[in-house]
Amino acid sequence: SIIKPGLAILDLGCAPGGWSQIAAEKTNSSFLKKNKKQGLVFSIDLKYVEPIDGVKIKLLDFLDHGAPDKVKAWMGQKVDVVMSDMAPSASGHKKTDHLRIVNLCEEAAYFAFEVLETGGTFVTKVLAGGAESGLQKVLKNNFSTVANVKPFSSRNDSSEKFVVAKGFRL
């Protein structure tokens, strides 16, 4: 219910491209059919991603100085959904990795505040571990609903979950 025909989507940390492919299909960004609302899908990653039909892809490290401004200029518009699957390189130290991924989630959230349309949605992957409570608080102040979702594909012992924030308020 998050991705619908005609919406504009931004996928942060898109490699290898699965989320972008699904977004292209569900928004109709890859179809030029009459009587179909056509969406847009913008995707960035610091790793090369094979071209995906209906997806505009940019090779960029989101944490580089000036990168968020480059993304905004490249898109040239606001979006309805920001998805972030960004993940840092694993250090092997659970607490350090948790803090790094929460930092990426926070960076993505603050960027989403700049590029989301009113009523928009933000989705990010996070590892549970305690430090994500600050992110939850910020999201609850800016969205009408915030929910934590553990995907069926995630192992039972995994701390991976997705935070889904709907109803962006300016």
Describe this structure in words.
This protein has 170 residues and is of the alpha/beta class. Helices cover 30% and strands 29% of the residues. The chain has four helices and seven strands. Strands 3-2-1-4-5-7-6 form a seven-stranded mixed beta sheet, with helices on both faces. Helix 3 links the parallel strand 4 and strand 5. The chain is globular. The chain starts with 7 loop residues before the first strand and ends with a strand. The relative contact order is 0.15. The mean pLDDT is 90.
Quick take:
The protein has helices spanning 18-27, 67-75, 94-115, 133-142, and strands spanning 8-12, 40-45, 55-59, 79-84, 116-127, 143-149, 160-168. It is an alpha/beta fold and 170 residues long.
